[in-house]
Structures are given as C-alpha cells and as structure tokens.
Design a protein that fits this description.
heterodimer; A: about 260 residues; alpha/beta; Rossmann fold; 12 helices; B: alpha+beta; two-stranded antiparallel sheet; 2 helices; binds adenosine-5'-diphosphate; binds magnesium ion
Chain lengths: ~260, ~80
Amino acid sequence: MARKFVITSGKGGVGKTTIVASLGLTLARLGYKTLLIDMDFGLNNLDVLMNIENKIVYDIIDVIEGKCSPKQALIQDLIENNLYIFPSTHGFCRVKFGSRELLAIISSLEKYFDFVLIDSPAGIDGGFRRAIGCGDEYIVVTTPHLSAIRDADKIITNLISEKKPYLIINRARGDLMLDSKMLNVKTIINSLNAEIIGVIPEDDNVSLQLLTGGAFDENTAIQKSLNMIAHNIISGENKIFDCTKKYRGFLGTIRKNLKSRL
Amino acid sequence: MKNLQIVENRLKNMIVSDKKENPMRIAKVLKSEIVNVLKNYFEITCEDVNLDILIDENGKYDIQINVLSRAIKIANTFAD
Ligand SMILES: Nc1ncnc2c1ncn2[C@@H]1O[C@H](COP(=O)(O)OP(=O)(O)O)[C@@H](O)[C@H]1O
Ligand SMILES: [Mg+2]
C-alpha cells in the first residue's frame, strides 16, 4: 500500500502545486513509483506544470462516469518513468462527487505505487475536506509571511488526524532572515503545531524550470532542499535545509549585501 | 530587529484569537465524548475509535464512526 500525502495550505499561491510536482519528480528519480493527483478541481494546473495537458485522454469525470478505469486515465511523466499523473478536470464539473468516489479511485490505484501526492485546494471549505479525506498523512505548506502562517495554523487546527501534520516552509529567503527582515524558520516552527519536514528556498527559476525541463539540477539549492524532504519522508529523519548558510561567513556576507542592493 | 519583534507578536496574537472560534475542533472533542459514553459498556480506549467527517456529493457532512472493542463489560456494571 502506498503512503498517501495530502499537500495543503490555508492561503493560496504558497507553492502546493509546485511542491507536488517537484517532490514527485524527486521521489520518482530516487526510484519510487509515485502518483500525483490534482484535487484542486477547477483551478487545477498540475497538468500544465507537468507538461502533459495535451496528453490527457480521460479525466477524473470519465472515471467517475465509468467511461474508463482509473488505470486507463493515468499519464506517465515525459521524463521520469516512475512518475504518473492522474488528470483532474478543467473548468466546469459535469457531475458532483465526494470523498467516497475519490477514495474508490485511489484505493484501486495505490497498489501500483509507493507514494501518492495529492494536490489539495487552499482553505477549509468542502474541496479541502474532500481532499483530506483521501490521504492519511498531511503536509501543510506555508511561506514565511504573516498571513500564510496564520492560515496554516487554521488548517492545522482543522485537520482531524491521528498523525501530526508535517510542515514545509516554502520561498524562504536566508538573506532576509539573517537581516531580521523576514520571520525566521525557528519562529515559524515554534508558532505552528506541526512537524517540520522541509524548508525550500525562494528560487527565481521555479516556474520556468518545471514547465520546460522536469526536475531541477541536482546541485541547485532548491533541488537539495527537495532531496532532503524526500529523504525525511522515506527515512523518518528530519534534516532541514539551511537557507541562511549561503549568506553567512565572509563570502556569504558579501553575497547578502549584493543581493540587498538589487 | 524591533520590527521583526512586532511581527512575531502579531503572529502570536492572531493564532491565539483564531483558536477561540474554531468549529471543526468539534471532531476532537466529539471523539473523546464518544469514548466516554461507550466505555461504560465496552472495553475501549481512544485508539479503538475511528472518527471521520467527510463531505458527501451534496455537501452534507458524512460522519463515520467506527469502533472496535475486544470485550463487553459485565452486567454488574449496570445492575442497578
Ligand atoms: N520556492 C519558490 N521560489 C520561487 N517561486 C516559487 C516557489 N514556489 C512557488 N513559486 C511560485 O509561486 C507561484 C504559486 O505557486 P503554486 O505552486 O501554483 O501555488 P499553489 O498551488 O499553492 O497555489 C507560482 O508562480 C510558482 O512558480
Ligand atoms: Mg495549486
């Protein structure tokens, strides 16, 4: 049976879809069969991010209506053989469905996979609860910004789960944290009742890289942070990427000052 | 430095005040109440109770409660 993670957040635009895509690529690259499911119906863009929007034959509605089996709807990633995407539906939903239908689909597919990553909508409405009903482990994503952390806390309190939710802090800027211009990782961790599983740095290449060429280069900071998250998920350890390291010491201080002048 | 301290305090205040008005916390409380009632009749602990609140296709709450117990309590508990 696969481990099923729901990636969620209180605030939109904090990087859930980006993390589902890039963490999926990372796990697949490590040899784990990974399935990505987009449950942000209507606002779905995982297919675009994965570059497969033209390869979709059947979507989730076709599966629910019985036009094809869940397995037939799966699309294999263009680069990583171990990675599959279960396509969502664009725009208007012809049929209504709840967690029960989604759970049936997932339970018929999970035997083929090691990991299932579910991209959930932001907020605490029906769509969110439908998505969380489909997983058994939760990853709450926040950025270091006040409103995102506050909304992350709301999500964490709303998660009815045996297991403490995990936390990813995305778009962390080590230079600003060192200069006390951004809430630092420690403060965020202390504010939220979740188990930190990763810190991902802000990276200008994020959107373009994923849209054009799959995973990031192994030696980039962002890929190192993703590798650490994958490692933590697999091993249960908790090694956290240090986003301030690059800006400490003699060279680091020069780097930081140069960046603040930009 | 000072500004960051102000932001940290605002965060703390927000989180505390948000918690006072949280409807879904009901699930956690509900679970412990169910255990309290059932343990008069069955041998159970909190771990034996599975509580799920799902949303069905009509947007209604689908409250699923599943309880497994090893044994029923003997009659003398409710003799009187
Ligand atoms: N670590 C990062 N560094 C830079 N930009 C990022 C990072 N993570 C996400 N983004 C950008 O933020 C925007 C929102 O991300 P997205 O994954 O769509 O958020 P969500 O799914 O939570 O709404 C996108 O334009 C994405 O490229
Ligand atoms: Mg998204």
